[in-house]
């Protein structure tokens, strides 16, 4: 009859629902698991057990006895490999893993070589650099030409000493005046509590630019070097004199 046919179709739909759920989840199920998952479709534990048994009998799912309980699971496409197949597969995996590691190592070496080459200049860049150095060298040679052509004059020790004395005097004078002004200016600033720049603007003080101040430090080092040289010369002269008197 129509009613019985509709009932069979309904049960068939429910069985398909159970089958689809098991295949989608692809894990072991028992009747209670199916009922919990598909209860909204009207499939209670009793019906779930019935559909599971039917699906297992028709070969659409697998069943495994676990004590008093039957566990159902989806059909697996791949068959389980035997021991020989497993061993062969493991050997193949090991071989391919070693080959992959070797390929990665070779790739890293090539990348390192590529990075090293990227830092080196190309031939056009080398030519540009060489041309620039050649022009720079030519300019320096042009500046040296007059000096090389000039015979020059020897500077006597007396003239050198006078020049050094004048240089030392000027540097010490500059350094002394700068120190005295700084001490006095700092004292005034402490007493009036005004910012250094503001006070300088008000009284019209101009400080040495940084490059000039740096040059003073260089000159002081030159003065110290001259004094050390003279001290060494004086000790040598005294030693020679004492040695001559001893003879």
UniProtKB/TrEMBL annotation:
<feature type="domain" description="Homologous-pairing protein 2 winged helix">
    <location>
        <begin position="15"/>
        <end position="73"/>
    </location>
</feature>
<dbReference type="GO" id="GO:0003690">
    <property type="term" value="F:double-stranded DNA binding"/>
</dbReference>
<dbReference type="GO" id="GO:0120231">
    <property type="term" value="C:DNA recombinase auxiliary factor complex"/>
</dbReference>
<dbReference type="GO" id="GO:0010774">
    <property type="term" value="P:meiotic strand invasion involved in reciprocal meiotic recombination"/>
</dbReference>
<keyword id="KW-0233">DNA recombination</keyword>
<keyword id="KW-0469">Meiosis</keyword>
<dbReference type="InterPro" id="IPR036388">
    <property type="entry name" value="WH-like_DNA-bd_sf"/>
</dbReference>
<dbReference type="GO" id="GO:0000709">
    <property type="term" value="P:meiotic joint molecule formation"/>
</dbReference>
<protein>
    <recommendedName>
        <fullName>Homologous-pairing protein 2 winged helix domain-containing protein</fullName>
    </recommendedName>
</protein>
<dbReference type="GO" id="GO:0120230">
    <property type="term" value="F:recombinase activator activity"/>
</dbReference>
<dbReference type="GO" id="GO:0000794">
    <property type="term" value="C:condensed nuclear chromosome"/>
</dbReference>
<dbReference type="InterPro" id="IPR010776">
    <property type="entry name" value="Hop2_WH_dom"/>
</dbReference>
<comment type="similarity">
    <text>Belongs to the HOP2 family.</text>
</comment>
<keyword id="KW-0539">Nucleus</keyword>
<dbReference type="GO" id="GO:0007129">
    <property type="term" value="P:homologous chromosome pairing at meiosis"/>
</dbReference>
<dbReference type="Pfam" id="PF07106">
    <property type="entry name" value="WHD_TBPIP"/>
</dbReference>
